[in-house]
Each structure stands twice: as structure tokens, then as C-alpha cells.
């Protein structure tokens, strides 16, 4: 049992690992829809509050919901485009109505999704986890360079900050043990931010402007409205998230030495469905399991669910105390990028470790791993190749995790399942000597 102060510190480390991804979604959507600063501030607060509730639901679990693994839930990037499109053509109330109905769909569809898990053997799991890690590497490198689209992107001081943060994390892991090693990422972020402050790269203006307390209220943007097109769109978004989360569950199972069963996945997906409904009610976003935190679990070796309970509690508090939430936004992108390189690299290494348990001398396994990783990485690296396709197809195929996972599952069916069935139905060739 971890001490309370260790649970809080380790939980904070997980929040800092996922914070940029959690905050950037409301910032992008709020900016695209020309929301006021007050409305954007509400979006961020509602997002953090609901992230915390969703994480607690998933980690604590009940008889019917919750994966009960050390997982953190955050808003899915897949929903950004569709939410902007729906709100632009109608209004935010219609977008949130679609989110609520799509969450109910996820709850109801979870058992059906669980029955498909026989198509996820070790070779598919290893390929999917590897694809998850590889698809996150560009995110880390963009942050290390200062943040994609930022005017100082690629400046030497950004690269040095990222390198310095990474070196600090590596040195702590090399020369320390126990709790200090477990919070290596947090210490790297603190030292990196302190160095950036001396360079004039850290501003506390957002902290000064933020209010001390605010309460998240249901239906802030109005009573939900419903549109068939919007609902179908959000259901497709959440089907993609279900596929992503399934891969994250398997990755966590391997990292924590826990056998993830069909029922575990069903309960996890049900938990996400409930979280999505809450996102619609509190005018936040659809939620999914954050893969970046898998790398942190692997890097620190801390597999306790208590840490994630602590993280969920802190997120709820941050959602109620905007000034504290703003404090975590002062970390420069380059510093975050340096930490992400280590964390996301650990996800890749975890996938490779899973694949090492597979007999890659078998041509079928080799083709499944090779083609799925290539397709997944290619889709993420060159998303423009799908620009001429219909919007729904483009949205799905530009997600490397989805394309890679689908490739792995389909190849497993074609190369392994059909081959096994063929060998079972083929007549036995019995020689005279064997018969006698």
C-alpha cells in the first residue's frame, strides 16, 4: 500500500503526462467556434472535471462497468473535427446531444465488441501496441521542437530543453531507485520548467487571470438537441475510440502482468460509454483510454490502481479550481516533448516485447506484424493520402491506430483462421503403413 503523499505525487505525474492532450482539445474547439474566453475556460474546467470522474469510474469499477486497471481517460482527438463540423452547421447543443446518444450506443454495443476479441491473438496485440507507440512518436517530436505551428518551432533552445529533460529522466532512472525513480518524469518536468523559466520561456499570466473556484454545470451550452446525421457521426467516432481503447487495455494488461479477458474489455468499454454520456451532460467531450499513460506505467513500474484514483481525484479538483489547472499549463512544449520521448518509446518497446513472444518464423505471423505496423505508421505519417475519400472514410483511415489494428485483425482472419479451418476440414491422407 502506497503512502498518501506518494499516491498524490505519482498521480500528479500521470496528470502532467496527459494534460497537454486533455487541454488542447477544448482550446482547438473553442478557437474554431469563436467561443469567448469565458466559454473556453468553462470547456477546459468541464473537461478536467469529467476526465477525473471518468477515470475514477474506470479504475474503481463496478460489477458491470470499469476495466479496473491503472488507466487514465481523456478526450479523444478523433472527435475534434466532427464536433467542430456539427457545431458549425447547427450548434453546440446538437453536438452534445449526439455525444450523449453515442455514449449510450457504446454501453449497449460493448458486449458485441467483446465477442470479437478472439480475433486479437498475441501477434495482433503486439502489433497494435507497437502501432500505438509509433503513432505517438511524432507528437513527442513536435512538442520537443516547440509545438507544431508555433513561431519558434525547431529553435535550438527548444531542442536543448527537450534533450535536457530527457537526460534528467534517464539519469534519475540510472542512479536512483524506489520512489525517486518512480517520479522521474515529474522531476524531469519540474527541472525542465525551472530552466525554461530562467530563459524567459515561462509565463504565469494565465495563472493570475484564472479564477479560484468554479462549478461545472450540466447543459452549460443549452438543452441537448438531436440530429440523425450528427448522432451517426459521433457513433462512428466512438467506434474508432473503442478500437483504440481495446489496444490500450491489452497494452496495460501486458505491462501490469494482468490477463485481460473478454469480459474485462466489455466492462471497460461500458465504463467509457458512461463517461461519454457524462461528457455530453457536462458539455465536455467523448472520452477514451489515454495511451501515453501506458508508457508512464511501464517506465515507472508503478502498477497500483491507487495512483490512478489519486490522479482522478486531482483532475476533479483541477476542474473546480481553475487557478490550479492553469498552473500546470505553464510547462513549455519542449519540456513536455522531452518527457514524451521516453514515455512513448516505452510503449513501442512494450509492443516489441509482446511480439518477441510470437513465433515470427511462421510466415503468417511475420506478415501480420509487418503489414499492420507498416499500414498503421503510414496512415499516421501521410494522412493526406486519404483526402479524396468521403469524410467518414477519411476520418477513420487517417487514424493510424485504427488502420493498423484493422489490418492486423483482417490478416489474422485471412491467414490464420481460414487456414486453420481449411486444415480441420481437409481429408486425412493415410498411408498403407500408417493404416497398418
How would you describe this protein?
The chain crosses the membrane at residues 12-33, 39-60, 67-87, 93-112, 119-137, 157-176, 183-208, 228-252, 307-328, 334-354, 366-386, 398-416. This is Xanthine permease. It is found in: Cell membrane. With 436 residues, the protein is mainly alpha-helical. The protein has one domain (4-418). It is 72% helix and 1% strand. The chain contains 19 helices and 2 strands. It has a two-stranded antiparallel sheet with strand order 1-2. The radius of gyration is 22 Å and the shape is globular. The chain starts with a helix and ends with a helix.
Give the number of helices: 19
Uncertain runs with pLDDT below 50, 5 residues or more?
Answer: 428-436
Structural class per helix/strand content? Answer: mainly alpha
β-strand percent reads: under 5%
Oligomer: single chain
Biggest sheet record: 2 strands, antiparallel
| C-alpha end-to-end distance | 65 Å
- What count of structural domains? 1
Helix/strand order, N-terminal first: HHEHHHHHHHHHEHHHHHHHH
User: If you average the pLDDT, what whole number results?
Assistant: 81
Alpha carbon gyration radius: 22 Å
Placed side by side, the strands forming the largest sheet appear as 1-2
InterPro entries: NCS2 (IPR006043), UacT-like (IPR017588), Xan_ur_permease (IPR006042)
Organism: Brevibacillus fortis
Membrane topology: Multi-pass membrane protein
Protein name: Xanthine permease
